[in-house]
Input
Amino acid sequence: MNVDRLFIKNFHRQDPVHITILWWLSLVALLLLLWLLYTLLPETDIQQEVLFTIGVIGLWRYGWKTIHLFRGLYYQYVRYPVLASLADMTQKPSEILLVIPCYRTTPEISAPVFKALVDEIGNFGVACRAVACVTDEADLSIIESQFEKLNQKVPATLFIIDQDGSGKRNTMADALTLLAEDKPVSRDSILILMDGDTVLPEGILAKVSGFLMRYHDLGALTVHNKPIVKGSSLTRQWYRQRMAQRHFYMSSLSLTYRVLVLTGRFSAYRASMALSPDFIESLRYDHVTHWRYGRIRMLTGDDKSTWFYVLKERWKMLYIPDMAVTCLEDAPSGSFVTTSISLMTRWYGNMLRSNIRALKLGPKRAGWFLWLCLLDQRISMWTTLIGPSLALVVATYMGLKVVIAYLFWVVLTRSINVLLISVQSGQFHPTFVALLWYEQLVGSLVKVYLFFHPNLQRWTRQGIGQGVEDHSWSHEIKRWLPHLETTAAFSALLIFVMWLYG
Output
């Protein structure tokens, strides 16, 4: 299937031309308005210490991003082509295994997803066993009809598992157990974990198989994601901006055979590893230990669990930058702010819970550069808040002009950031500057809150959450203590910023 021509009602890759022009005009108008206000307001002398503090933080943040840029460019244009040239794309595994969770996907989504999947398997010409985890009868009829066509080309076995709404983890673990118990897998078999709203491009199975067959110390790999979004223009561009950032960082990390996540949209694994009892158990019963909450069962973030297992077992991981799956993103209903905060709560909660234990592996086991990136995740959620906090504190003494000057600084630095990312990803839009700042600022607030509330979990699609009705004194203390910690942390940040200004 040619995914570039894929059309699904109400899902869009890009804005219409006239909407993009309006965004450009809005950006220019905003800059002119800020400049006008800046010139009309009385002059103020900003202390050099304030500029120095913001400058040092900015130098560190953008120096770090520049390192990522050069690493990513080197990987994308030097290292990866060498790796790809050595991989034998004609060598095929004896079998392809697939696990595909489909939770309440509509027929408009399921039909192109499974058509593309079946076409790709048929063209690849390798026997397959697939487990589809479904909830609706409409999905079932589409999947069965597509696999009937596939059986005319290659030997294909389809298993169906009902998703009962208890969570994606249990369903995926059941699917892996079914495949492991059905019959033994050969050493060269490959397992694909993918979502039921991911459309595969032509040639992806040959690509991932070529790498896994050639590099025997490679445990898993993932690919680029391109979103087609059902939602507002702002939501659509936010997804695109996020995927551009993902491409930016994944390319950099892959230079040392590590990634930050084995994305659930599509990732390929060495089947002998992924069907082992330890891997399945780590997916089903994964947890982290917290000093206050004790054992926290991981409800969401299955892709972080699979990633951590591969990292812990010291397998190499790789990012394929020149192969992209198309993700059909049906954003949660509501305003952009409500939607984005809901999704960030899930994503960043998964990230922080995994960060806790990944850091404990140490730099030798996790790899020095990945370990530093994990450490940076902890630090950056605080440093991002220093700039706006300092601007507001100084503005209380010196007036609104300080805030406008800070906004110009935001436009300048985030524009540089967006340009760094666009150099590598080729993605750019006039809203990316504002959306990047929004995600950094609001995302940092969400991260700080979740840092003290690591037990909060919710899957936006299934509505799975964690909550216990307990009115004992110990539970009440546990419930209020993280709120006090959060308040104390933000108070300490404010005091630190006031000290910087003083």
